[in-house]
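Module 6 notes. Inverse folding takes a fixed backbone as the condition and produces residue identities as the prediction. Think of it as a translation problem where the source language is geometry and the target language is the twenty amino acids. Below is one complete input and output pair. Work through it position by position during the lab.
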């Protein structure tokens, strides 16, 4: 702040001589760079025109940020160059960057083009257009033409749809480059036209009329990178056309695309796939044409093992195939890939199964006949069984990704088949049981995960007997030593319990739960999460099947889970306390939780307080409040804070029911609000807030006003947490008792002689004003104008604080420590006038 405020005093030279070398430091961390960029930004804003002699220095340092791998670095670079352009002006920016436009080094030209596009975005494209026209038409150097076109491309990428008003002018600016003698210029022009069409979609086809003919001529003449660029441009232009024209131009370009299906160039193949995807989605292309002309060649030349090995082409091939299926129907495409589900190559099988999954998710299995359905499920089981269990260290991540895709595909395809999957369920269950016996941990884990995914479908197909059998099998594997596998087994059991219900569950819940109790001690997050979810579901729906003693044993185990790092586990644990309390009564559970308030670990205590509040919500507050109030009598800081936090969560959860307990807890809150400990007062204020908000409009204004008298002395605290809690408590009481009550408290300090006092009161007044502006109007004091008689003014100023001498008293004497002190008339009049101006 100091540097930016004194920027003009320091001068541009000394500042940039210090800041720019720091920005170029090779050891600069992201956070440090971010702070330096903010400083440079503010300095540029302050220096304004003084920055002009240093524009080149700044650009040399900042331009490399525009091509940084880190997205945020690129954003910060654009921000600085944008502010630099606004400070220095267009003429200075162009004059500075002009020598770099035809630089031989492509890196320099690339960064200059990006910087000029940022300047265009900051100062407006029309301001830069005359310069761009001149550069793109340069006869002197093809480097300059290349850079000019690159600027147009970057403008399209940077502005997005905002490029529409300038679209025709930009296209006309670069159209001549399609016939340039230099291949690099022709390529970048085609890429720029593609970027403009992508930015303008779905509008702006009229602007591209002048380039259609050169593009169509070019795709027949170009090869390699040039052809790829021209095809990319056409791929973005065709979707902008009307249906009739789109169909015609698709047929014209398809001749070239079909020829290039077999190209060995991976980059060209990726662009060909993208163009096919873009063209088949247009309305003018008929399903019959796609089915007869495109699909046979597409699958013959592109669906090969080599495509599964290249990640970029893999993703593009899947997306294009899904679009083809959307055009010609799911059955047509699935019939062509279903046999490949049994291919020898695992990556290729994964490609086929993922494509099948996405097609069925998008189009459903309505047009899949019985034979195709049988082939699909058979292939699916084969893919699942033939996954490679063992993997090298380097391949482990890729294997995990592949396994996740196969699992997801299996679950999704079976779900899409729905009732039609019933004949295949025994075979699937047999596969699962066989793989649960496998010596490889990953194989066992996949089998258990599959049970969790297909359990809802098995229930829908009335295969409850099969589900129960799988439940018994998984129950027998609860002694699994690998935590990842154990977590998946618990997940499978949880899915079965969810769909089959407590009454039909095999093994019975009374046998299952005792086996889960020791598993709760496992420290692995996946095991903890699935175990606590399963226990919580049993406590919620089948608590009567288990003895109260077993539930208490589980309660003691659950206390340890409150220490878990993962928030989801802690949340599930406190909810489970509520279910157990509802099942066996709150007394024993509450005693356990209250005892846990004495531990030292804060996170444990906080989770315990939330659990107490949930128990109160589940079993009615009157079962919990007396025990909590009794616990507050223990003269231990942690316990008392825990009780107050419990009350805070309790009143937050029970809402309007809190009015019945307001008068009961007022003495406890009084004690907390006058305690010497800051945290006591902070937590008590939070409790007052929830209590007041719950009791608003329910006739509890007397209790809220009484609590306000204890909250108010805390307004001068300096701790941010306490300040926030006190402000929220006052806001809650404002909602319950009305803004006029708060204003009567505020009037005493709005014009206090001490600035720090005034600041606090004005902050509270502003909050009340924002929250209840109209409610304050009727509460403002009615004060007459200054020109009335002294007696009337003296009466009107009765609302002033007693230690302020009123305006109109002859000598303005005031008493201080028994002595008569002469008040200064000017200050006295100003003080009184301010009151009058505010409230008249």
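Target side of the pair, the amino acids:
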């Amino acid at each position: 702040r100091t540097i930016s405020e004194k920027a003009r005093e320091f001068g541009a030279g000394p500042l940039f001589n210090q800041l720019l070398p720091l920005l170029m430091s090779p050891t600069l961390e992201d956070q440090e760079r971010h702070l330096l960029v903010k400083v440079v930004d503010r300095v540029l804003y302050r220096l304004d025109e003084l920055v002009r002699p240093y524009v080149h220095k700044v650009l040399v340092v900042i331009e490399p940020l525009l091509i940084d791998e880190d997205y945020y670095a690129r954003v910060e670079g654009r921000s600085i160059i944008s502010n630099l352009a606004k400070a220095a002006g267009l003429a200075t920016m162009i004059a500075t960057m002009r020598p770099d436009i035809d630089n031989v080094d492509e890196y320099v030209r690339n960064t200059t083009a990006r910087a000029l596009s940022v300047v265009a975005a900051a100062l407006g494209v029309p301001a830069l257009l005359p310069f761009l026209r001149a550069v793109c038409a340069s006869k002197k150097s093809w480097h300059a033409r290349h850079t000019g076109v690159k600027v147009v491309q970057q403008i399209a990428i940077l502005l997005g749809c905002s490029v529409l008003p300038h679209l025709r002018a930009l296209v006309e600016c670069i159209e001549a480059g399609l016939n340039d003698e230099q291949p690099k210029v022709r390529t970048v022009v085609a890429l720029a036209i593609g970027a403009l069409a992508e930015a303008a979609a779905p509008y702006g086809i009229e602007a591209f009329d002048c380039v259609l003919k050169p593009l169509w001529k070019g795709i027949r003449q170009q090869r390699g990178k040039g052809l790829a660029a021209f095809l990319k441009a056409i791929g973005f232009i065709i979707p902008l056309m009307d249906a009739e024209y789109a169909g015609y131009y698709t047929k014209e370009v398809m001749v070239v695309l079909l020829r290039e299906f077999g190209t060995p160039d991976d980059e060209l193949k990726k662009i060909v796939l993208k163009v096919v995807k873009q063209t088949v989605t247009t309305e003018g292309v008929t399903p019959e044409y796609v089915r007869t002309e495109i699909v046979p060649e597409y699958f013959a030349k592109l669906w090969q093992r080599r495509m599964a090995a290249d990640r970029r082409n893999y993703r593009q091939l899947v997306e294009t195939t899904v679009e083809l299926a959307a055009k010609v129907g799911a059955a047509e495409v699935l019939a062509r890939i279903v046999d490949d589900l049994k291919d020898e190559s695992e990556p290729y099988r994964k490609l086929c199964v993922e494509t099948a999954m996405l097609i069925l998710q998008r189009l459903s299995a309505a047009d899949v006949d019985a034979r195709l359905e049988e082939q699909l499920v058979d292939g699916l089981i084969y893919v699942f069984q033939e996954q490679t269990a063992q993997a090298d260290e380097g391949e482990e991540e890729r294997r995990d990704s592949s396994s996740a895709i196969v699992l997801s595909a299996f679950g999704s395809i079976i779900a899409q088949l729905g009732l039609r999957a019933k004949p295949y369920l025994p075979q699937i269950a047999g596969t699962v049981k066989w793989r649960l016996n496998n010596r490889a941990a990953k194989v066992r884990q996949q089998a258990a995960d599959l049970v969790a995914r297909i359990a809802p479908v098995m229930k829908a197909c009335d295969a409850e007997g099969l589900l129960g059998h799988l439940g018994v099998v998984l129950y027998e594997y609860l002694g699994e030593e690998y935590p990842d596998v154990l977590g998946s087994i618990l997940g499978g059991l949880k899915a079965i319990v969810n769909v089959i219900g407590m009454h039909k569950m095999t093994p019975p819940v009374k046998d299952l739960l005792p086996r889960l109790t020791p598993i709760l001690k496992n420290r692995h997050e996946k095991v903890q999460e699935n175990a606590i979810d399963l226990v919580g579901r049993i406590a919620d729906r089948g608590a009567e099947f288990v003895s109260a003693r077993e539930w208490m044993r589980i309660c003691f185990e659950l206390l340890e889970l409150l220490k878990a790092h993962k928030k989801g586990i802690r949340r599930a644990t406190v909810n489970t306390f509520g279910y157990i309390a509802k099942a066996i009564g709150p007394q024993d559970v509450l005693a356990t939780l209250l005892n846990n308030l004495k531990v030292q670990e804060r996170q444990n205590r906080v989770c315990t307080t939330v659990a107490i509040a949930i128990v109160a919500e589940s079993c009615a507050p009157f079962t919990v409040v007396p025990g909590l109030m009794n616990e507050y009598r223990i003269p231990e800081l942690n316990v008392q804070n825990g009780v107050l936090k419990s009350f805070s969560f309790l009143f937050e959860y029970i809402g309007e029911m809190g009015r019945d307990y307001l008068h009961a807890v007022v003495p406890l809150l009084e004690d907390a609000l006058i305690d010497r400990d800051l945290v006591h007062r902070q937590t008590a204020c939070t409790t007052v807030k929830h209590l007041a908000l719950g009791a608003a409009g329910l006739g509890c204004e007397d209790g809220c006003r009484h609590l306000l008298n204890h909250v108010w002395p805390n307004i001068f605290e300096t701790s941010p947490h306490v300040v926030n809690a006190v402000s929220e408590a006052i806001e809650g009481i404002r909602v319950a008792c009305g803004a006029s009550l708060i204003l009567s408290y505020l009037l005493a300090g709005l014009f206090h002689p001490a600035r720090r006092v005034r600041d606090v009161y004005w902050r509270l007044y502003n909050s009340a004003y924002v929250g209840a502006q109209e409610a304050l109007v009727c509460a403002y004091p009615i004060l007459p104008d200054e020109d009335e008689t002294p007696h009337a003014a003296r009466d009107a100023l009765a609302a002033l604080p007693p230690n302020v001498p009123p305006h109109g008293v002859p000598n303005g004497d005031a008493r201080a420590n028994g002595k008569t002190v002469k008040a200064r008339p000017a200050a006295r009049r100003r003080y009184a006038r301010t009151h009058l101006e505010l409230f008249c």
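Reference fact for the lab report: The first strand starts at residue 813 and ends at 816.
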